[in-house]
Write a structure and sequence with these properties.
CATH topology: Immunoglobulin-like
Strand content: 35-45%
Shape: globular
Structural class: mainly beta
Largest sheet: 4 strands, mixed
Low-confidence stretches: none
Strand order of the largest sheet: 2-1-7-8
Number of strands: 8
Number of helices: 1
Length: 115
């Protein structure tokens, strides 16, 4: 059985840099919504540790909440209209490592299942 885990990173596509200093919350949505963690991205736009390790991983529906508007406002730029970007993902056991990158600007974002 492949161990499962969850990680993320954020790229500021408006400035062509990692999004250092962005707040991210991880929520487990089942059976009732509960915030599991809040972290800030490091200089590489990554979290210092995985959001879920193989030891803390549980299958289910999760939300990653990225504070995109606050990040751009703190940089002295236009916070745009995104505010908090929420990505809702379903994680299953034995599917290996889940990596959810966010590429964002004040006006748009995209994501994919990374490796």
């Amino acid at each position: 059985m492949k161990p499962s885990a969850l990680s993320t990173h954020v790229l500021d596509t408006a400035n062509g840099i990692p999004a250092a200093g962005m707040a991210i919350e991880l929520w487990r949505m089942e059976p009732e919504p509960a915030r599991l963690s809040r972290t800030i991205t490091n200089a590489d736009g990554r979290t210092d540790s995985p959001l879920l390790t193989p030891e803390t991983f549980a299958p289910g529906r999760y939300e990653l909440r990225f504070e995109v508007g606050a990040y751009f406002a703190a940089r002295g730029g236009d916070p745009g209209y995104l505010g908090t970007v929420t990505i809702n993902v379903g994680l299953r056991e034995a599917q290996g490592h889940y990596h959810v990158p966010l590429l964002c600007s004040p006006w748009s974002y995209s994501t994919y299942r990374g490796s």
